Amino acid sequence: MRADARKNRDHLLAVAGTAITEQGVDVSLRDIARRADVGLATLLRHFPTREALLDALLRTSFDELTAEAGVLETSSSPDDALVSWLRDCVAWTTEYRGVVVLMAAAIEDTESALHASCVTLRAAGARLLTRAQAAGMARTDIDGADLFALVAALAWLGDQPSLAPRADHLFGVVASAILTSTASSDTERERRPHARS
Predict the structure, then answer these.
(1) For the segment 122-169, what is each residue's pLDDT rounded down to a tens digit?
(2) Which of 47, 56, 59, 193 has the fewest CB atoms in 10 Å of its CB?
(3) Reduced 3-state DSSP string for 109-123
C-alpha cells in the first residue's frame, strides 16, 4: 500500500473510532465519510462493508486483549489473571457502544469478517478460565462460551445510562460468582485495608 493510501486509511479508522465511541456501531458510513472529509466512495474503496471497517478498527484491540491473556497466564495467579482480563475485556467493549452485539453474532457466523478475531479472543478467555478451574479457583460449571456471555452482559450494563453507575459493583458481584469461595475470600481480603495491630 502506498504511503498516501495508508495515511488516508489510518485517518478513516481514527475518525471511525471516534464516531463509534460517540454514536455506537450503527453510526452511518456516510457520517463517517463526512467527518473524515472524504466522499462515501472513498470510504467504501478502503472498506467495502461496515464489517470490513469494524474488522480493521477492532482487530488491533482483539489482538491486544488476546496477547494480554497470554501475559497474564504466566505473570499472575489464576484467579487474578482471570478477573484482570475480564475487567479489561468489559472495559474495552463498553468503549465502542454496541460492539458486543456484533461480537456475539460474529462468533456464530463463520462468514463474518470479525469471526476469527472473536473466536480467538473467546479462546483466550477460556484458557484463563480453565487455568483457574484447574487450580480450584473458579467454578467448574461454566465454560468459555459462558464467560463470553458474561462479558456481553456486563458490557450491556455499562451501555445503560441508568445502570452505568452500578457497573463496577455488579462486575464485582459477577467476578465473585465466577471464583470459588476460597479464591473470592482471598481476593476480598487483599482488597480490604489491613487491620491495625
Answers:
(1) 999 999 999 999 999 999 999 999 999 999 899 888 878 888 889 899
(2) 193
(3) CCCCCCHHHHHHHHH
